[in-house]
User: Which sequence fits this backbone?
């Protein structure tokens, strides 16, 4: 269901929030969008925890804050950089943690540079980075060299220190509009109270610097030793009810279930795939192929690797790209399931136009949402549109059994409460019927291209069972046909002997359906609730919890004991499942030392270096690809977060005017007439868009519920008293808000929630607009995505819907 607007999950969990001593809620309005968060935050506050909220608007979340800062949208990295600088200069970092659990001491390649806004390796033509210099100095064993101290100028720590020395509180004030004293107060409050946790959502992710903003969070938390601890972590508050589950199942184009990299067109076989992605990925991929193709995936046919679609690495096939290709006429059919794209996608002009280029669109939804009736939008002439639209009535969440995975990575099972109304059917039934019919049409074909359909294992029953699907995700021992009891059983088995539809889900149904568990006892009183549902991976509730112990494997926080090394039993034990490579390997062994086992160094990464573990000392002479075990995940836009202005910005970058916006941001320009970019002379104000508690996302459901419409009937533009006075409007007056891409007329809300602020010494205004409306439903209204820009974060592909430039006038 629904497009995903970012990867990630909580390192910790909702119920763990009660353990924090300080919260940085920046880029989330959880009181309105994730009210359950407040239940646990309030428990911590009752025990004396402090809450810091950073938001362009004074929200309901902000109303509960001890420290509130109003920020110019899209500038978080500037104040976060200042916090990093403050923590380093004042030695507020957790030295033990930094030395033992992060890559602070590893030596960086001497060719690495950062100069005037650009990291080394930038290619101006392709606007991409070559990442070779973002690596370590390696020893003869191909392992990174370690510096003797944090002072070594080659060390990651020294690079970090130098990089953020440019970020003073005063510079951050000029960029963000937050007073320097407030930034200092935030830095001090957050750095000095432990453990501290960070909560974020769209306010951080819908930017061209989204990934780097979250990297800045990770750096702060690693420096403070807050990751792997109860009450710590970096917590992504996910959006749609099962968006965590759908990202786990790979609804992004560039991965496969369980966050496996998707194969690319040059991967001719598993060997090539392994050479690019590390040999570590072979087993989960083979297990996935076994789940999909069963006995038709054999060692002899490379486990049906040929059946997988391969992506074109040169094409960043994000949603915007998909609609561009549709606009070019390259799509005949669109299956639009559980998404109201015409309302939700940035710069909706492209969507509106592209849908007319299709032969057919199938919409599966509960209501006839705007997308399903795009041909009826006021101003559109249905007789000129060739697209045939088929509406499939979908059953709602209460009308079907299945699991939803929440932000805490808890896979939670539920039964159907009622039978679907009318002709509605669960999506699974639709997909099952569709697949079976398509397969019938291909029956008897010997064409290689049809093999993936004909050879698939499709055994969900006559009436497809959602439990069978979850069991497929859990995986089987393919030799005995039995469900895999635990993740450890998957890890132990030889490649090709097991199947897993999503390897991180292994264990969820191995000993009965653990996702259905509803035991809410909590013996540790840490909110772990180990017997409530099942958390991936391996029912670990707090990721990287090895880091909650010292080097000897003993908990550093006696009040919040998660795991420990029991030397009598020679075993890692705990209140939580120990997040270690091997429970029998002691804290001082190479395996037992690692707090971040998913990284090739086993360390938390202050600097996102290019590095592959297990490389052979010399490449083989026969020209075979060089295969290491695990390559590091890289950020395409730099190894350290740097502040860049949004694509449309009222000012130039104070740190480096020559490289003002992110040099690698994807600014779509295939259709210059549609994908226009505005300038501050014409559009002097900053627009930010957000959700409201009474409506949900594109409003497909909520705008058809009369009592919600009564509470929140129409969209509006909120602005400061100064701006309202300047353009001569009062609360409730109609205003026209325009951007380079379009304009809408809505009522204005004059508010103290937004205040005039100064950027580089100039007075600046933010205008806020909710985005949940469209022309259909019981309560229609203009769509804010008429105005937004579809430039994308280069790594995640998330559109910059949280900031663009607009003008506003009395309508
Ligand atoms: N009632 C309700 N609940 C929802 C939803 C809904 O529509 N209605 N939507 C669901 C979905 S899919 C999602 S993804 C989540 C979204 O949950 P949130 O991310 O909380 O949603 P938003 O209101 O879009 O944005 C959060 C805040 O970010 C602020 N913000 C904007 N730009 C910036 C910035 O540059 N920096 C900082 N620090 N803050 C900024 C906004 O002013 C806003 O208050 O909520 C989910 N829950
Ligand atoms: N300007 C701006 N744009 C944004 C955002 C923003 O903050 N600002 N936020 C972005 C975010 S985070 C998100 S997640 C997207 C959301 O964008 P969409 O996913 O397009 O929005 P929804 O309204 O959640 O659409 C979900 C649809 O699924 C239907 N539905 C519900 N349950 C089922 C089901 O079981 N089966 C089927 N088939 N359909 C079902 C609902 O009726 C609804 O129409 O919007 C993005 N767009
Ligand atoms: Mo979302």
Assistant:
């Amino acid at each position: 269901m629904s497009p995903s607007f970012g990867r990630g999950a909580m390192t910790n969990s909702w119920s763990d929030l009660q353990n924090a001593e300080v919260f940085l809620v920046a880029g989330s309005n959880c009181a309105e969008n994730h009210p359950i968060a407040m239940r646990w935050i309030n428990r911590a506050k009752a025990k004396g925890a402090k809450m810091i909220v950073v938001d362009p608007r004074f929200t309901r979340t902000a109303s509960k804050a001890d420290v509130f800062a109003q920020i110019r949208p899209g500038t978080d990295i500037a104040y976060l950089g200042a916090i990093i600088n403050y923590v380093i200069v004042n030695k507020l970092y957790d030295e033990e943690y930094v030395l033992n659990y992060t890559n602070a001491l590893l030596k960086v390649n001497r060719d690495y540079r950062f100069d005037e806004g650009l990291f080394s390796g930038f290619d101006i033509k392709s606007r991409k980075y070559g990442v070779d210099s973002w690596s370590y100095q390696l020893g003869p064993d191909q392992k990174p060299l370690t510096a003797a101290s944090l002072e070594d100028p080659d060390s990651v720590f020294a690079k970090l220190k130098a990089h953020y020395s440019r970020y003073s509180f005063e510079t951050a004030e000029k960029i963000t509009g937050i007073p320097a004293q407030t930034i200092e107060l935030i830095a001090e409050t957050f750095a000095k109270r432990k453990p501290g946790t960070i909560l974020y959502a769209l306010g951080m992710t819908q930017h061209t610097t989204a990934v780097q903003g979250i990297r800045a969070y990770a750096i702060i938390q690693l420096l403070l030793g807050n990751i792997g601890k109860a009450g710590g972590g970096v917590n992504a508050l996910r959006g749609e009810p099962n968006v965590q589950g759908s990202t786990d199942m790979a609804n992004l184009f560039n991965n496969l279930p369980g966050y496996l990299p998707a194969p690319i067109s040059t991967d001719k076989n598993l060997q090539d795939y392994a050479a690019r992605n590390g040999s570590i990925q072979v087993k989960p991929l083979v297990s996935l192929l076994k789940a999909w193709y069963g006995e038709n995936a054999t060692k002899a046919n490379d486990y049906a690797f040929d059946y997988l679609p391969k992506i074109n690495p040169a094409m960043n096939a994000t949603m915007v790209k998909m609609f561009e290709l549709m606009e070019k006429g390259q799509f005949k059919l669109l299956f639009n399931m559980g998404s109201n794209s015409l309302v939700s996608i940035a710069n909706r002009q492209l969507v509106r136009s592209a849908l007319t280029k299709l032969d057919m669109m199938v919409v599966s939804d509960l209501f006839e949402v705007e997308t399903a009736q795009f041909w009826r939008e006021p101003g559109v002439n249905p007789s000129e549109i060739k697209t045939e639209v088929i509406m499939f009535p979908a059953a709602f969440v209460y009308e079907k059994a299945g699991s939803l995975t929440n932000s805490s990575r808890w896979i939670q099972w539920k039964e159907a409460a009622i039978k679907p109304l009318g002709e509605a059917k669960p999506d699974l039934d639709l997909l099952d019927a569709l697949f079976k019919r398509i397969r019938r049409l291909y029956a008897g074909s010997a064409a290689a291209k049809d093999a993936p359909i004909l050879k698939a294992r499709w055994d969900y029953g006559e009436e497809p069972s959602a439990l069978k699907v979850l069991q497929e995700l859990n995986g089987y021992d393919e030799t005995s046909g039995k469900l895999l009891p635990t993740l450890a059983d998957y890890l132990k088995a030889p490649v090709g002997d097991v199947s897993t539809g999503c390897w991180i889900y292994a264990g969820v149904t191995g000993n009965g359906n653990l996702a259905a568990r509803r035991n809410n006892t909590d013996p540790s009183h840490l909110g772990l609730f180990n017997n409530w549902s099942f958390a991936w991976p391996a029912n670990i509730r707090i990721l990287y919890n090895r880091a909650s112990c010292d080097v000897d494997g003993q908990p550093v926080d006696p009040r919040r004991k998660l795991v420990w090394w029991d030397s009598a039993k020679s075993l890692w034990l705990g209140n939580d499942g120990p997040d270690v490579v091997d429970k029998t390997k002691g804290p001082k062994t190479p395996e037992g030392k690692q707090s971040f086992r998913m990284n090739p160094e086993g360390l938390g990464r202050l600097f996102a270096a290019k590095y592959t573990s297990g490389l052979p000392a010399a490449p083989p002479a026969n020209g075979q690809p060089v295969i290491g075990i695990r390559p590091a995940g890289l950020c395409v836009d730099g190894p350290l977060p740097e502040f860049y202005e949004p694509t449309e910005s009222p000012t130039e970058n104070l740190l480096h005017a020559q490289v003002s916006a992110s040099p690698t941001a994807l600014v779509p320009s295939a259709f210059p007439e549609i994908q226009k970019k505005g300038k501050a002379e014409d559009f002097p104000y900053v627009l930010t868009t957000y959700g409201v508690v009474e409506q949900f996302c594109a409003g497909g459901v909520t705008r058809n519920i009369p009592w919600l419409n009564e509470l929140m009937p129409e969209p509006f533009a909120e602005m400061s008293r100064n701006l309202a006075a300047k353009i001569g409007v009062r609360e409730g007056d109609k205003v026209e808000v325009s951007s380079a891409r379009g304009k809408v007329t809505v009522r204005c809300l004059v508010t103290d929630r937004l205040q005039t602020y100064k950027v580089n010494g100039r007075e600046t205004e933010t205008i806020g607009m909710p985005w949940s409306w469209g022309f259909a439903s019981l309560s229609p209204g203009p769509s804010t995505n008429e105005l937004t820009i579809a430039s994308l974060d280069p790594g995640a592909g998330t559109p910059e819907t949280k900031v663009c430039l607009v003008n506003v006038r009395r309508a």
Notes: The chain has a mean pLDDT of 96. Residues 585 and 671 are 57 Å apart (CA to CA). The chain has four domains: 15-106+163-240, 242-330+409-540, 545-594, 657-810. The first helix runs from residue 30 to 33.
